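Sequence of Serpin family protein (Streptomyces sp. R41).
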Amino acid sequence: MEVTNATIRTVNGLTARWAGVVSDGTLFSAAGVWPLLGFLADGADGAARTELAEVVGFPAQEAAYRAREFMATLGAIRGLDSALGLWTDRRLKVREEWEAGLPAGTRGELSGDHPADRATLDAWATERTGGLIDHMPVELTDCTVLVLASALALRTKWLRPFEERYFRPKAGPWQGRALLGLRRRSVLLDRIGVADTPDGPVTELKVLGSTGIDVHLLLGEERMGPGQVLGAGVDILGGTHEVVPGPQLPYGDVGPGVRVEKERCVRPRPTTLRVMTAAYEVRAEHDLLTQSGLFGLTAASDSRQGHFPGICEYPPLFVESAQQSAMARFGALGFEAVAVTSVGVSLTSAPERRYVTTTIRATFDRPFGFLAVHRPSRLVLAAGWVTDPKPYREGQESN
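Predicted 3D structure, token representation.
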């Protein structure tokens, strides 16, 4: 199956809208979220069905077909591995017609043993991303009866590698920092271009990969935010903004980070494009329910009633969690990025709690010491005192 231009437009549109609500360093994949929303729309009713269909961009009755078509297309892209997973609790009797809309080989089981289920889900994420993401970003509770997840992993090598160089910017927020720079020269001037957008000029550099997967580097004016620049990049892809390509750029400062000038050389040579950028690695964690309207999940996450009779007639279900973990690396030889997205679906009412147990809670919320002990000899190998615990930062993974 080949995905339609309409599907590409709606997925790219979700990318642009998502970019509009992010800030600071981050990474995300609308392509990892979109098919999950399509399958949910197929099984939803009422306001949840309407909201999900609006985000998916197709009538709800077409959503599962479009999502399945999209996953098949992803699977045919060189350098991209994609997978869909569905795990359900024994308590849940999934409608055969809804499950039939999913790609084959996606079904697994939730045992209700949280540590065991967590291990199963984490192993799936690890395997599908080559170990770059080692956890499934989903919350498991006593009421979780269904987990629907996608994984995307892309890797490509540059057709022409960069040279690694010491890079110390002379101005801007990175001024004075020692960075790992990436340098490249080329006579292919059309790799660079400058677009005039409503928010300001945006420079686009295309870095071509050997698998047909490219990376577009986008630079706007300093006053422009990530949503404006990334949104412009999506619009450039869609042909909304006219781009002046490298061969047509005039002399002078012609765009963000781009200057065209004459210079002397010792022998004749053609016009050359010289690129200097920085290597990077970005990791991010997203809670999609904090922007539930963006993903059509506002009604679906209302726990006061059920929303998915097309998945299971009884018991009533709602979306309890929706999250994404992502990582990308850009280096001298190539690029790789992975994203795991999951939706946890739960019962609208908690099962009856029939048992009583005892809980002991220990909280270390002020300076404390530790010993590392060799058990057979009781030899203390290390000792320490903790006064400055490691801070948490967005996108940080636990070690």
